Structure formats: C-alpha cells, structure tokens
Amino acid sequence: MPTVEVTQLVKGSPEAAYRLACDMESYPQYMENVREVKVVERGPSYTVTAWTTVVDGREFKWVEKDVYDDKNLTITYNQIKGDLKKFAGQWTFRPVEGGTLVSLVVEFDLGIPVLSTMLHPVLARKTEENCRSMLQAIKARVEEA
C-alpha cells in the first residue's frame, strides 16, 4: 500500500497553520484541485467531511472522519466511504527554527490487486503533487496573514 509524505516549511506559528488546515470547508477557495468540502457531522474533536477533488481531469469523491488533536496540533483522517479501498493519513504541525514544519501523510489503496502494480506508482506521484499543492496553498495563506 503506497504512502506519500510531503513536508513544507511555513513562516508562521504552528497554531496558525493548524487552524487554517482545520478549516477544511475553505479549501476550495484557495486549493485548485479541491472542488468541494462539506461538513456532514461535527463533534467536539472531529468532523465528518464529504470531499470532491479533481486530479488530471478525474473526479474523486469520498467521505472521511477527521480527528483534531488541538494539544498536539495533529489532524488524523480516515476514509469512511469513497472511490478508493483505503485513504487515510495525518497532518502534523511542528515548531522549527524559522517557523513551522507542516507534514501531510497519505496512505491509499485502489483495492484492485491486478492493477495496483501499474496504477499505484502513478497515483502516488499524482497524490504527492496534490499534497505539495495543498501545502503550498496553506503556506501562502499563513505567510500573507
């Protein structure tokens, strides 16, 4: 099962970057590939969100549970239903010299064993590109504030 990890140095506080990442409903305003994020359910330290993204002209939809750890500045997510067999990961926000190191980890599985050898590397590359784009968008928003 492929795992993609992307990091980005952001010149701002971990709390500011974390708060921005927690506001997933606003992602379509500044993340090119994210078409829609709707909060379906909200709890004391979690949300259930429905996502629509477009990667290379292909639309992906899923519903995930997002768990927020305000103390440790992490967001853990896990697909409840959607286009992939598995889609899960975590955001972390760690103070470093010069700002915050934001890390986004994505694990996924297409769920099609016969095609996974061929398609997983392609999807991993596209996922990495999309994650980098998301982190660049958060960086820009935090640094312009």
- Shape assignment: globular
Strand coverage percent: over 45%
Spatial order of strands in the largest sheet: 1-7-6-5-4-3-2
Kindly report the CATH topology. Alpha-D-Glucose-1,6-Bisphosphate, Chain A, domain 4
CATH class, please? Alpha Beta
What's the CATH superfamily, by name?
Answer: START domain
Helix content range: 25-40%
SS class: alpha+beta
Overview of this structure, please?
- The structure is a single chain.
- With 145 residues, the protein is an alpha+beta fold.
- It has one domain: START domain (Alpha-D-Glucose-1,6-Bisphosphate, Chain A, domain 4), CATH 3.30.530.
- The chain contains three helices and seven strands.
- It is globular.
- The model has no long low-confidence stretch (mean pLDDT 89).
Topology:
Elements: E1 3-10, H1 14-22, H2 27-30, E2 34-42, E3 46-55, E4 58-69, E5 74-82, E6 86-96, E7 99-109, H3 113-144
Antiparallel strand pairs: 1-7, 2-3, 3-4, 4-5, 5-6, 6-7
